[in-house]
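input
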Amino acid sequence: MMNWLRNFFYGRYGNDALNIALLLLAMVLALVFRFTPWWWLSYICYLPLILLLFRAFSRNIDKRRHENDVFLSGFRKIKGWWTRQRDKAKDKTHKYYKCPCCGAQLRVPKGRGKICITCPKCKKEFVKKT
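output
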């Protein structure tokens, strides 16, 4: 029996970060739809689980790895944005502005009154109150 199972799983993709995210999504959807008056919406939580099983048992490893890489690159962008927002909120000595020309984020000290800020990327000057 174990030999059959070992042979079945040989060459399969298995689990990765995207599968874990799909499992968490299914759990959150199940919890949310548990408290809605429309019982038929609870069937939506099975879709991520079906996709999870399909990806875990797939033999097309290159395609599953590419899907995971795309997911991780998007997740890193969101996580980086969230970390920057948290760090900005913790920073009590500086104020953050965006350059009106190129959109670069600039950090200037607080409590200096009106100052002329020069963007290091595009050299555009603008006046802001800190």
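quick obs: The two ends are 71 Å apart (CA to CA).
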